Amino acid sequence: TSCTDVNETVTLAQNVSMILTAGCFRLRKWNSNRAAVLAKIGESSSIHECNIDVPIATVLGLRWDPVSDELLFNVSLKHYDELPTKRRVLSDVAQLYGPTGFLAPVIISGKVFIQTLWYAGISWDTPLPKDLCNIWSKFRDDLCTLAKVRVPRWLGMNATSRSTLYGFCDARRPTLRSFTHTLSTVMAMLRYHCSPHVLRLRR
Q1: Closest-CA residue to 101 (of 168, 179, 202)
Q2: How far apart are CA 52 and CA 67, in angstroms?
């Protein structure tokens, strides 16, 4: 979440901790892009685990750079010398995790390819035909470029800004697509942000 200043952030953290402690849930790790917040929270475990000098933090599979306040992605798949099989393709696609939806265009491409394998009637451990093998190999090799993608965590929305959400939907084959645009106006400055919202296979 985002707050406008250090005091508001510390108050929010204390309130969340108090509410969860009442239910016997103790928060043990905090992170912030302001070192002053971590210092005022006052938990040594938090400051040790989430030092502002350590640039990359991982939360629920998301990688976050608190210095630049950007989300980033890292896909690390094992190298295989053997030809790919349907079982291995499913295993690789299952490792693509993007709860925010930013990786949805990539993940959906992998799922569409899996659908192609089912239509082709390929068994679990049979090496893929040459044409499908080439398609999969290129897709897999291109995943390393995701490490270059950085997405601002803060969308420019606050109490003084006027924000409007615009949603679009496209039902063309082979997938249903929806896209959400955020338009924020802050003191005569226009900030425009795009983010994929939902992409799913057509049944």
Answers
A1: 179
A2: 7
| Omega of the bond leading into 174 within 30 degrees of 0 (cis) | yes
Q: What is the pLDDT along the chain (203 residues), one digit of tens a residue?
A: 788 888 998 999 889 989 999 999 988 778 888 888 888 887 543 444 444 445 677 776 678 888 888 888 888 888 888 999 999 999 999 998 888 888 888 999 999 999 999 999 999 999 999 999 999 999 999 998 988 888 888 877 777 777 777 777 777 777 766 767 676 665 444 444 444 444 444 44
Q: Which of 25, 8, 9 is nearest to 17 (CA)?
A: 25
Count the residues in the chain: 203
Q: How far is CA 23 from CA 16, 80, 124, in A?
A: 11, 47, 46
b/e code 32-60 from CB counts within 10 Å (16+ = b): bbbeebbebbebeebeeebebeeeebeee
Residues pairing with 185 in the sheet: 162, 190
Phi and psi torsions of 125, nearest 5°: -110, 15
Q: What angle do CA 61, 176, 86 make, to 5 degrees?
A: 60
Inter-axis angle of helices 130-142 and 104-119, to 10 degrees?
Answer: 170
